[in-house]
């Protein structure tokens, strides 16, 4: 059944926020494991596709593509899927709606089993994919058509970021807050998601400020946010805006709580904040890079063992890597057939959560607790704090924003 979504979910949902986290963490450690040496896969490859902006100067997602390919290489070194090689087709949509449409056409013509981890910004009509029985696996839930597509198996992503941000602020008993967001349609939507949790919880928003996407001086905006000494200041925007805003808010003498989300604080941004960043509360859509658990360790090992030298580790990379990991886990017990219909059937049969790489347990079936967006079954987010120059999870456990 198609879900009617509000038109406010723009085709480039939170694009600026997602793409502007341009800094990341370079791999400076050694891999803790070596490449597996399973039997070489043979036969017809199982083809999957990933779509995004590969080398666009505004938003290069090379790290996402490299991380997805690294996990594909690991799967193949481990014997492939059902003994067959896994093949990743990379399609560069370059932030162009026509190129994105061409990528979807190519997915159909190449007869891929699934589209994984992709950034789909412009497509509203997925009827071609539906006719070809091609599912979306852990794509980034950025467009209304994507969210409504009946064969989309999505992580919470943006809902987790912004509704999670509102939930954390409310749960920590802040009675008055100042909220700022990018002065764009997508920024306004982020604000709407945050307010959809704050307002019912009775949290009073004393300042709601749309900030400029780029600005050399954030002092006036910071003064507005600190005025009235709210219990908390909540920042939704790009790294280019959020990092200097945090610095400017602290320079006003404001000593209250500051909240933001992980994409606005890449490792380079956290480093730039220095002392001003200590204690900032952060909502992530997956595990933070500082996580020491086996999933993050495996992601880092794959980057170190397979990715090109200099590939940076960041949230975009964990998204691409986790989408391949989720696909491979669900299809590991396939009877040897890997058509799109087989993938859809396998995901529809899920009755217990599957660990989706660094993104926590993936739910494939059930009723969403999010009544506004009922296709989003995975409503989890991770809570952390900047400590000693890195984002550290509070408990390492995922929370639900519902």
Write up this protein.
This protein is of the alpha/beta class. It folds into two domains: 31-156 and 292-365, Response regulator (Rossmann fold); 159-284 and 387-400, Response regulator (Rossmann fold), CATH 3.40.50.2300. The chain has 13 helices and 15 strands. It has helices at residues 15-19, 62-77, 97-109, 127-132, 144-148, 158-171, 185-198, 219-226, 239-251, 267-273, 294-306, 315-331, 340-348; strands spanning 46-52, 86-92, 114-116, 136-137, 152-153, 176-182, 204-211, 232-236, 257-261, 281-284, 354-355, 361-362, 380-387, 390-393, 399-400. The strands form three sheets. Strands 6, 7, 8, 9, 10, 13, 14 and 15 form an eight-stranded mixed beta sheet that branches. Helix 7 (185-198) links the parallel strand 6 and strand 7 (204-211). The longest helix has 17 residues, at 315-331. The two termini are 23 Å apart. Residues 1-14 have low confidence and may be disordered.
């Amino acid at each position: 059944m198609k879900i009617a979504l509000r038109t406010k979910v723009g085709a480039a949902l939170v694009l600026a926020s997602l793409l502007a986290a341009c800094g990341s963490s370079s791999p400076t450690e050694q891999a803790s494991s070596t490449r597996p040496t399973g039997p070489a896969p043979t036969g017809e490859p199982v083809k999957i596709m990933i779509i995004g902006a590969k080398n666009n100067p505004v938003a290069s997602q090379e790290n996402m593509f490299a991380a997805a390919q690294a996990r594909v290489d690991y799967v193949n070194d481990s014997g492939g899927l059902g003994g067959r090689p896994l093949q990743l087709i990379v399609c560069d949509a370059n932030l162009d709606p026509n190129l994105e449409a061409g990528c979807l056409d190519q997915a159909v013509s190449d007869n891929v089993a699934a589209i994984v981890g992709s950034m789909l910004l412009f497509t509203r009509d997925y009827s071609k994919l539906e006719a070809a029985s091609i599912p979306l696996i852990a794509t980034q839930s950025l467009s209304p058509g994507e969210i409504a597509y009946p064969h989309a198996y999505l992580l919470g992503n943006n809902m987790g970021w912004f509704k999670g941000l509102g939930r954390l602020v409310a749960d920590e008993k802040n009675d008055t807050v100042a909220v700022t967001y990018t002065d764009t349609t997508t920024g306004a939507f982020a604000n709407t998601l945050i307010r959809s949790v704050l307002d019912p919880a009775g949290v009073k928003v004393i300042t709601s400020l749309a900030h400029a996407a780029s600005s050399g001086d954030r002092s006036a905006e910071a003064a507005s946010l600190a005025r009235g000494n709210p219990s908390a200041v909540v920042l939704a925007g790009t790294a280019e805006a959020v990092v200097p805003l945090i610095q400017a808010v602290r320079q006003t003498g404001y000593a209250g709580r500051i909240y933001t989300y992980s994409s606005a604080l890449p490792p380079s941004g956290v480093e730039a904040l220095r002392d001003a960043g200590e204690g900032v509360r952060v909502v992530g859509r997956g595990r933070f890079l500082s996580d020491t658990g086996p999933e993050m360790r495996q992601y880092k090992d794959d980057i170190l063992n397979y990715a090109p030298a200099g590939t940076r580790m960041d949230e975009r990379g964990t998204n691409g890597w986790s989408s391949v990991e989720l696909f491979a886990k669900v299809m590991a017990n396939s009877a040897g057939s890997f058509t799109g219909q087989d993938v859809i059937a396998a995901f529809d049969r899920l009755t217990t959560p599957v660990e989706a790489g660094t993104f926590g347990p993936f739910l494939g079936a059930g009723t969403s607790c999010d009544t506004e967006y009922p296709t989003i079954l995975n409503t989890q987010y991770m809570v952390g704090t900047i400590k000693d120059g890195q984002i550290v999870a509070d408990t390492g456990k995922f929370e639900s924003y519902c």
